[in-house]
Amino acid sequence: MGITKHRECRVCGSEDPITLHNLWYRGMYGQLCTACVLAHHPASFCPICFDVYDDTKLPPPHLRVMCLRCPSVAHLSCVYSLPSSSSSSSSTSFHCPQCSIPNFTFFNLNGGIIQKGNVITKDLAKQLVAAAKIASMSLHKAAAIARENAEKRATEAVMARKRAKEALDKVAFLMLKEAEEDSRSSSNL
Question: Where is the RING-type domain (predicted)?
Answer without folding.
Answer: 46-100
